[in-house]
Amino acid sequence: MAQDKRIAIYPGTFDPLTNGHVNIIRRALRLFDKVIVAVAADTGKTPLFSLNERVDMAEKVFARESDIVVEPFQGLLVDYVASRNAQTVLRGLRAVSDFEYEFQISLMNRKLRPDIETLFLIADYRWLYISSTIVKTVASLGGDVRGLVPDHVFACLRARFGFDPVGVDEPIAPLPSPALPGQPDASAPNGREQPC
Ligand code: COA
């Protein structure tokens, strides 16, 4: 069915969603009618955000885009793709270093379900250096990751690491003293409403 070929499944851990992911998703809409952002429960990673939180963050980011749907999935990716009557897995490639891993999982997925293809888009040069991990690391130390993640994700990172929520145009406040072992956590949430 032609209509089924126009659905792309973009799987990942999305812990959290970054602007690199957003860029791949929006560009894919030039090729597909619909992109399903498939948030994996089974990733082999220990995420900072729960599955529900990762889905919720992405849903909020794409709330006004009806051709982008966010769903959690469990189990094998290829089974999930088949359950959605889709034939294409979408992945982004940032660097040569991504290639070996992506090559391996795409071949494994093809072995499991030969009818499902993996399509790679080269990440935009602006996002070549970011990953969810590097964004989390910087955010956890109070660094400014605005512009690297959607504004809502930025607010969630601030809240998760106990920093004051700040607007996108506000300067980042000086770092609170980090909690040292055995000392009370000076950076704990201060009672303001948390956005996430
Ligand atoms: N811009 C910025 N960062 C990007 C990016 C882009 N365009 N594309 C990928 N990344 C980053 C991600 O943020 C992530 O960073 P992190 O490692 O710091 O978390 C990293 O590159 C790649 O991770 P991600 O895209 O989340 O994929 P993953 O490798 O964590 O997960 C799944 C891959 C979810 C697709 C895979 O685990 C899966 O299919 N799981 C289901 C079970 C299954 O079928 N397993 C068998 C597969 S053979």
UniProtKB/TrEMBL annotation:
Cellular localization per UniProt: Cytoplasm
Positions bearing the site annotation: Transition state stabilizer: H21
Residues that, per the record, bind substrate: T13, K45, L77, R91
Enzyme class name: transferase
EC number: 2.7.7.3
Binding-site residues, ATP: T13, F14, H21, G92, L93, R94, E102, W127, L128, Y129, I130, S131, S132, T133
Broad class of the protein's primary localization: cytoplasm
Region (Disordered): 174-196
A GO term for molecular function: pantetheine-phosphate adenylyltransferase activity
Protein name in the entry: Phosphopantetheine adenylyltransferase
Gene: coaD
